[in-house]
Amino acid sequence: MLVQELLLESLATYWYVVFTTIGLEYVNLLAQRQEQLITEIVAAIFELRAIHYVFTTSVTYWYQVLEQLDVLRKKTDAQPEEVIGIEKLIAEAYSVIDKANQVGTLHRNTGTRRKS
Known about the structure:
Keywords: Ribonucleoprotein, Ribosomal protein, RNA-binding, rRNA-binding
Strand content: under 5%
Number of domains: 1
Shape: rod-shaped
Family: Belongs to the bacterial ribosomal protein bS20 family.
Organism: Artemisia annua
Structural class: mainly alpha
InterPro entries: Ribosomal_bS20, Ribosomal_bS20_sf
Order of helices and strands: HHH
Radius of gyration: 32 Å
């Protein structure tokens, strides 16, 4: 009887050690996965901020271009100097979109669609 009790006690101690070790390893894995998820979320936030910046700047440029085109359309005698300002705005918008394509913030097709 005493041998059986000792055997059961040693088995219980063994399984306790095994389960606590597995539990600690699982907790460590969860902590590592949590850190990995946090870094992925932070990277996604930065990417979304960059996409938002590109979108808002390109939209702002296009609104400025459209406003200046409306002014030119209403004028009967437009000077070439007024057209140069519009061309500069278009060039700035193209450069913002091209930089976003090169960095990888925008997809290639999205950039060409916005430029068209």
